[in-house]
Write a structure and sequence with these properties.
4-stranded mixed sheet; 12 helices; alpha+beta
């Protein structure tokens, strides 16, 4: 939702570049900015008429270049646009803007016109648009019933021992290795019971309009969460809050991408238990090859299904 859009890490990356006083194309902090830009959900001044997105462009006073104005949050948006403007803030992932900017009439994007007024040229946008392609192994994908059987039998003794050992508290490379040998869980939350739509105890995302993942947050931080077992999940479930909770086997790379795209600070494994914290910086450092490190190709459809706890 637009109200919750922040992009704080993108703003920090812009600040780092501005403080470095380097040419943008040669800046040593440019790779971090490019990554955060790829993970961003920015606001565009637009008019959504249902069939297409009508958007505004800005002309540079210096050289008549045409830029697509984008904003990191609604506060920045309304510094430039009045509440009664015909344009409203519409949120999209970076890939949408990269596609728009490919138009020959657009020379780049400008971020936060009234604050940073940070210009990104088309050549840098093309670099940011390049994605890391993953070639999955040619293996049979698990059926829903097979995924359910794996879920019911999940046991991560080695991962639990690793997390419980205080000597491993900062062993981030080690936790990635352990995750590559484990099947861990997401926690799904709903205001309505989802299992009424289940068949053989399998809740399909297509039957319930998708799943909403639980996160943790305090006054300054927000985290994605993973669990090594159903018992670990039981330690965080509130009593009688009127919500319904379910679990699903996690596609870890997808969860990490979810964390990055939603401007979160990292991942916590087993909150309220033997917690292990994976900071955002470590997720980024592993990002280019994360699928190859911790993904089981046979389980690549696991996020399509959830199960009652």
């Amino acid at each position: 939702m637009v109200e919750n859009t922040t992009n704080n890490y993108l703003k920090k990356a812009i600040e780092q570049i501005e403080q470095s006083n380097d040419d943008l194309n040669e800046s040593v902090v440019l790779p971090n900015f490019i990554f955060e830009l790829k993970m961003s959900n920015l606001l565009i001044p637009g008019i959504d008429n249902g069939d297409e997105l009508v958007y505004e462009t800005l002309i540079s006073e210096d050289d008549d270049s045409t830029f697509l104005p984008l904003f990191t949050d609604s506060e920045e948006f309304f510094k430039h646009y009045d509440e009664d403007s015909e344009y409203e803030p519409i949120e999209n992932e970076f890939e949408i803007y990269a596609g728009i900017s490919a138009d020959e009439s657009i020379d780049g994007i400008i971020i936060n016109v009234e604050s940073e007024s940070f210009e990104v040229t088309k050549d840098l946008l093309e670099i940011a648009e390049m994605d890391y392609e993953v070639a999955y192994e040619d293996v049979d994908v698990c059926t829903p019933q097979e995924i359910k059987e794996i879920y019911e039998g999940i046991s991560n003794d080695d991962l639990d021992k690793f997390i419980a050992d205080e000597a491993n508290e900062d062993n981030l490379e080690g936790i990635m290795v352990e995750l590559s040998n484990a099947n861990v869980l997401n926690l799904v939350v709903s205001e309505e019971p989802l299992d009424e739509s289940s068949e053989d105890g399998i809740i399909r995302a297509s039957d319930v309009e998708g799943f909403s993942l639980c996160t943790m947050e305090d006054d300054t931080s927000r985290y994605g969460i993973l669990f090594t077992s159903k018992d670990a999940i039981s330690k965080v479930l509130p009593e009688d809050d009127g919500l319904y909770y379910y679990a699903q086997i996690t596609n870890v790379a997808s969860l990490f991408e979810f964390v990055l795209r939603n401007d979160m600070d990292g991942v916590i494994i087993n909150p309220n238990g033997s917690e292990f914290f994976i900071p955002r910086s470590e997720i980024i450092s592993q990002a280019s090859g994360i699928e190859l490190v911790i993904e089981d190709a046979s389980l690549r459809d696991c996020l399509e299904y959830a199960f009652k706890l």
